[in-house]
Specification:
alpha/beta, four-stranded antiparallel sheet, 14 strands, 2 domains, binds adenosine-5'-triphosphate, ATP-binding, 559 residues, 22 helices, six-stranded mixed sheet, Rossmann fold
Length: 559
């Protein structure tokens, strides 16, 4: 009613761009994957639609085809890009570089497309949806609103927490039995489709597509708008994009030479004054959010898969295991078995190969030679999430948790591989196996379920990680120096928990430990590693009285 034609036009475009910025934020702000590639998916969607409408016509059937292709083609490209970017052990830099290359390649393809793509002039004058200026303004507004609300619900849901978990600690996700690579590929594919939908709206509302909308400069602008609005919030990128695009459209006409300087100064000022973006400013004026309803802990019925191996059968069997880093042999000819209920301490001087052994037992791709079996199944070549599914839980030396999440969210993620979390709601009941509940009660974490993990003490983070690993209901737990940096009381608590897990629940445990008093109190067996070889395997007393072990620890045994 009160906007002029120019403003309607600009705001329609800004709202479509804001949809795109939400996709950038879900990837970068929430999942930690910095991407410049969303412009390419947007451009591909817009060109797919414009090419159909230009070369085939704009009958209702063809408009429907243009709509379908504008979503499907970017999704297919997104699937390939996701697969290339997130293969196992690819670094985050890899994904970012691919996201840089994608818009550059897409623009080149458009340039060399001749009359099909309109080359450098783009496509114009094709038939579009018959909505008119106001109609497209409303359509863009509704689409943006629907996407904003959907994204808002999703990031607050139990499934949405997975994105932040991947950003915080992808390795821990894999060791909770999740497949972060597959999740990121799925996210890239879906968000490429959303970007394509925005491209379809753009191609129809503007009536023109040009190579710039597929390009790297536009991809970078989207990242900047998201950062200035406030990444990791849904409303931030919407405000940043609409605000800056609208201002640019107005001021670039009136101040053609000064405008870039103005926007540059604004960026610098914002980064200094509001490093968390515009959304942080808005949050200051909003009433504080009411605390979420109390989280209720309940008991999860045992999965039943646990401790099925008979006492005498080996749960873990290691045969002639070897590990090399290049030409450096760090493990050689290791042979040992572990049965259910055994608590084996792994000791040895620094550099003996203890952590390398734990790595080989929990990530089959680390094994250089030999065979490792868990409950009779060979794990060579299997990734951590596949080995978790066989019943192996790993606790790291430095507490590996999700710092940006609440305690309850971390624990729920430990169940996510078996109980699909809701993509819409955050449940108020948290059902955990009894053993995990016991750890929470013993350490007082059961009263801190809504507390951010970043606020926990070092000892509580260690206990939380242990509770997460135990919530996986493993048959074998690998623990790397679980008492490092803990107080005496905390050590006693952890020791008691480990004894209970092994003696009462029949879980097997391998504990890397330097504290020999602790080893003496908890272990049923001790394995000594020295220079990558197993030099002794026996009871605590046999090892404690061994002359060889005394010599190794005094630095006297070489070769
Ligand atoms: N990624 C790697 N690349 C090359 N060499 C490595 C790598 N990781 C470990 N090593 C080497 O392998 C050997 C065994 O290391 P590892 O960390 O397994 O020993 P450790 O017994 O756990 O020692 P610590 O008690 O100090 O943690 C060391 O010589 C180490 O330098």
């Amino acid at each position: 009613m009160f906007l002029d034609r120019f403003t309607l036009n600009v705001l329609t475009r800004s709202m479509i761009y804001a949809m795109l910025a939400i996709t950038v934020d879900l990837l970068w702000g929430f999942t930690g994957v910095l991407t410049f590639g969303q412009a390419a998916f947007f451009g591909i969607g817009a060109y797919a639609a414009a090419m159909i409408l230009t070369h085939m016509g704009a009958s209702p059937g063809l408009i429907a085809l243009a709509f379908a292709l504008a979503i499907i083609v970017p999704m297919l490209v997104g699937l390939v890009v996701g697969w290339l970017s997130f293969s196992y052990k690819a670094t985050p830099l890899y994904a970012t570089v691919i996201s840089l290359v994608l818009p550059i390649v897409t623009t080149q393809v458009v340039f060399s497309g001749g009359q099909w793509t309109g080359s450098s002039s783009g496509l114009v004058g094709y038939g579009t949806l018959p909505f008119g200026l106001v109609g497209f303004f409303r359509l863009a507004g509704v689409c943006l609103l629907v996407l904003t609300v959907a994204a808002w619900f999703f990031v607050r849901s139990d499934a949405g927490k997975l994105l932040v978990a991947i950003r915080d600690n992808e390795v821990r996700c894999a060791y909770l039995g999740l497949n972060p690579q597959r999740l990121k590929i799925a996210l890239t594919t879906v968000l490429a489709g959303v970007a394509g939908l925005a491209g379809f709206l753009f191609a129809n509302s503007s009536g023109v597509v040009a190579p710039e909308i597929t390009g790297f400069v536009f991809g970078t602008e989207l990242v900047i708008w998201t950062a200035l609005g406030g990444r990791g919030t849904i409303i931030g990128p919407v405000m940043g994009t609409i605000g800056i695009d609208y201002l640019s459209a107005n001021l670039s006409g009136e101040l053609p030479f000064l405008w870039n300087l103005v926007i540059g100064t604004l960026f610098v000022a914002m980064i200094i004054l509001l490093p968390n973006g515009l959304a942080a400013l808005v949050a200051k004026f909003l009433p504080a959010r009411r605390g979420a309803g109390a989280m209720r802990l309940t008991n999860l019925a045992a999965a039943g898969a646990q401790v099925t191996a008979p006492e005498e059968a080996a749960l873990l069997s290691v045969k002639d295991l070897g590990k090399t880093y290049g030409s450096l042999k760090v493990l050689e000819g290791l042979d040992f078995d572990i049965r259910p209920g055994e608590l084996v301490s792994l000791v040895g001087p620094n550099g003996a190969g203890k952590t390398s052994l734990m790595r080989c037992l929990s990530d089959g791709t680390e094994i250089s030679s030999g065979v490792v079996r868990v409950a009779g199944q060979e794990i060579n070549g299997r990734t951590p999430n596949e080995i978790v599914a066989l019943g192996v839980g790993r606790k790291f030396q430095v507490a590996s948790v999700f710092e940006s999440l609440a305690v309850a969210d971390c624990l729920r993620l430990a169940l996510a591989a078996r109980h699909r979390p809701s993509p819409v709601t955050r449940e108020s009941d948290l059902a955990l196996p009894t053993a995990a509940l016991d750890i929470l009660r013993l350490t007082g974490l059961d009263h801190m379920l809504e507390r951010p993990v970043a606020d926990l003490s070092h000892g509580l983070k260690q206990s939380l990680e242990l509770a997460m690993v135990v919530a996986l209901e493993p048959r074998l737990i690998l623990l790397d120096e679980p008492t490092a940096g803990l107080t005496k009381t905390e050590r006693t608590t952890i020791g008691g928990i480990l004894q209970k897990l092994t003696r009462e629940l029949g879980i097997a445990a391998i504990v890397v430990e330097h504290d020999l008093d602790f080893v003496r109190t908890i272990s049923s067996r001790v394995v000594v590693l020295h220079q990558g070889r197993l030099v002794l395997d026996g009871t605590v007393d046999a090892v404690a009285n061994s002359e060889l072990v005394k010599t190794i620890y005094s630095g006297g045994a070489h070769g």
